[in-house]
Every structure is written in C-alpha cells, then in structure tokens.
Amino acid sequence: MDNFTSQTFHAVTETARVRIGRLPLWQRLLAWVFFIALVGLGVILLATSLFVGGIVVLVIAAVIAIRSLWRRITGQRDDPDRENVRVIVKR
C-alpha cells in the first residue's frame, strides 16, 4: 500500500497568492463617493413617492456594505482568479 501523505508537492502545498498592491487613493475615494451617492439616492427616492425604487437602491447599498464588512472581518482578499493576483511558487 502506498503512503501518499509522505510525498511533497511543492507547487501545490507551498503556493502563496499575493495581491499586487492596493487600490490607489483616488480609486478608494471614488468608491466611497459612489457608495454615499447611492445611499443618498435611496433616501431621496424614499422621501418622494418612489418607495419601491428607494428600497431597491438601499438594498443594493446594504449588500455592498455587508459584503465589504464581511470580507474585512474574515480577512478575505480579492478573488484569486482575477488578474490582479499573481502566484508565487517557493522551490
């Protein structure tokens, strides 16, 4: 009987995914401006007679905020399949 646990596969076991840099400051500020504008639009739509549109916009903003907060709490990074990630293999 073969013992496969004694074999080492360096390319698989010692692969680290490294994110190439963070977003520039202007892109982070633009994302915050977009988010605040989205929430503001939802509040304005709720204040007028367009309740359904306001609720939809606020739900979208809430999903964005909860997803971002959850990723920050759990320490998740960007999707490793995206092109802003490179694979480093230790040999």
Supply Rg. 21 Å
The coarse overall form would be: elongated
Q: Report the biggest beta sheet as strand number plus sense, adding barrel if it closes.
A: 2 strands, antiparallel
Low-confidence stretches: 9-21
Mean pLDDT: 68
The count of helical stretches stands at: 3
Order of helices and strands, N to C? Answer: HEHHE
Structural class: mainly alpha
- Largest beta sheet: strand ordering: 1-2
In terms of DSSP E residues, the strand content is 5-15%
Terminal-residue CA separation: 29 Å
Percent helix, as a range, is: 55-70%
Number of separate structural domains: 1
Strand segment tally: 2
Quick synopsis:
By secondary structure, the chain is mainly alpha-helical. It contains three helices and two strands. It has one domain (4-89).
Would you write up a description of this structure?
This protein has helices at residues 10-13, 25-47, 51-74; strands at residues 15-19, 85-89. With 91 residues, it is mainly alpha-helical. It has one domain (4-89). Residues 9-21 have low confidence and may be disordered. It has 3 helices and 2 strands, in the order αβααβ. It has a two-stranded antiparallel sheet with strand order 1-2. The chain is elongated. The longest helix is centred in the C-terminal third of the chain and has 24 residues, at 51-74.
